[in-house]
Amino acid sequence: MNRAVTALFQLSLACLLAVVFSNQANAQLLPAADTPEGKIIRSIDVQYLGAAVVDRNRILANMKLREGLPFSSEDQHEDIINLRERRIVEFVDIDPEVKGNAVDLTVSVMATGTLGSITFEGQTRFDNKELADQVNAELGQPLDEEKLLEGKFNIEELYREKGFSDVSVTYRTAVDRETGFT
Predict the structure, then answer these.
(1) Hey, which residues does 43 pair with through a beta bridge?
(2) C-alpha distance from residue 168 to each of 79, 112, 128, 134, 158 (Å)
(3) Taking the model in full, what pTM does it have?
(4) Of 122, 112, 10, which Cα lies nearest the Cα of 58?
(5) What are phi and psi of 119, to 5 degrees?
(6) For residue 70, which of 45, 98, 46 has the smallest C-alpha distance?
(7) I need a labelling partner for 119 at 20 to 30 A (CA). Which of 39, 113, 127, 163 fits?
């Protein structure tokens, strides 16, 4: 009888431990009450860092996260990547704030600079139009550093072809915070 009681006790203890560890594992799998995951998005506020040159609706149209849908950190990550890859914004952060059973999102963006003008300083051999033709960037389009760098190399080559082998070309960009032009 003593062996039966001991075996029953061990079996009961094993079952009790299994239930306790099972509940702890399940509790770790469930999202905490203060996390936004799966909660309904109540509002989305777009805040601009700098000039608001990108329409709010264009930003929202390029996001998976939407008011009335459940929040997903995977969608949050994809939206950040999508907005940057499409060159809609230079910087984006999506900050969820839990409010009871809902989530309020703050989308902070800095728009990609739009090329407003190209100016040249210190040139004497070529006029501005000849130099501007070497830069394949278009005014009014999003700033593309690669095109500016290519233009720099093209201008250096133009000078070298005319016998100026020691030429050095640099460029810089500046953002007008009021207009958003670069």
Answers:
(1) 104
(2) 41, 28, 17, 15, 11
(3) 0.56
(4) 112
(5) -125, 155
(6) 98
(7) 163
pLDDT in tens, 66-125: 999 999 999 999 999 999 888 888 889 999 999 999 999 999 998 777 778 888 888 888
Three-class SS state of 65: coil
Q: Where are the alpha helices (DSSP H) in the chain?
A: 2-29, 56-61, 73-85, 128-132, 145-161
166 exposure class (CB count in 10 Å sphere: 0-12, 13-18, 19+): exposed
C-alpha 59: how far from its chain's center?
11
Q: Which residue has the tokens 């550093």?
A: 145
**Fold adopted by 40-111:** Ubiquitin-like (UB roll) (3.10.20)
